[in-house]
Design a protein that fits this description.
By secondary structure, this protein is of the alpha/beta class. Helices cover 34% and strands 23% of the residues. The protein contains nine helices and twelve strands. The strands form three sheets. A seven-stranded mixed sheet has the order 5-4-3-9-10-12-11, sandwiched between helices. Strands 6-8-7 form a three-stranded mixed sheet. Helix 1 runs antiparallel to helix 5. The longest helix is centred in the middle third of the chain and has 15 residues, at 124-138. It starts with a strand and ends with a strand. 44% of the residues are buried.
Length: 270
Amino acid sequence: MSIAMTELPDGRRIHCVNAYEVGFGWHEIVSDDLTERGLDLPVDGVFFDVGANIGLFCLRLHDLCPDARIYAFEPMPAAFEALKNNSERMGGMVEACRVALGAAPGRAEFDHYPALSALSTGDSAVGETLAGGLRSLLFGQGASEDIRAIIDKTGAHDRLDEEAFIDQLFRKETVTVDVDTLDNVVARFGIDEIDLLKIDTEGQERPVLDGIGEGLWPKIRQLLVEVHRGPEELKTIREELEARGYKTVIGDHPMAQGGAAVFHIYAHRA
C-alpha cells in the first residue's frame, strides 16, 4: 500500500492517496460555509464523518472546533491509511475506523478507483456517473473558473491526449470491506448525542440511513448528506428527514458542473 504527502494551500503537509485529488476536495470543503446553511458547529461537539476518505473534512472540523471529538469511517485500505496518519496529527481527537456503514453488519464489494480514491463506491452505477462527470470537468465542459483553476494546477488537463493516462485515471478494481451499522458503532463508543452526521458515501447514503434505528434518530441534531442518485433520491431523503422534524436546505455539489446529479442536504432540528 502506497500513500503520498502533499501540501494544502495554507502550507500544511498531509498524507494522501493521490496528491492531485487534494486541491479539488479541499476547495469543496472550505468553500462550503455550513453555518450559512443553517448548521452550527460546537467547539466541543461530537461529529461523525461517514465516508471520510483521507480526512479532509475531519481536518476542517478540527480547525473550526479544536475540542471536538470526531469519529471517521473509511473502508478503502489506502485512503484509510492516509486518514489514520492524518488523524494522529490532530492530537488524538479523531477516531479512525476502517469500516463501511450500511443497513446491516456483514461484508460488501466496493469499486475502488486507485487513481481517484474519492470515487470509490459500493454502487457501480454511481461510480460510472461520477467518473463521467469528472471526465466532463477535465475536458472543460461546464467547469466554473475556480474549479477550472484547481484542475489546471493538477497538470491533468495537459495530459488529456494521453490515452494511457486517461485509462489509468479511471481504472477500477474490486475490494471487499467490512460493514457495520451506525446503531452498532454509536452503542460501541457510548455516544449520547451526535452534533453533526456527515454522510458522503458515493451512492450508499440510503444504506447508511437505513442503519439508524428509531432510538438513535433523536440523538442526531444535524446532518450533511451528499446524495448521488439523482433528484428522486434527493426528494425522498429530504422528505424523510423533514418528517423526522429536521429543517432542510439543498445545495449543488461541484461535480454537478460536469453533469453528475450530486446534491447536498443540510438538515437541522427546528
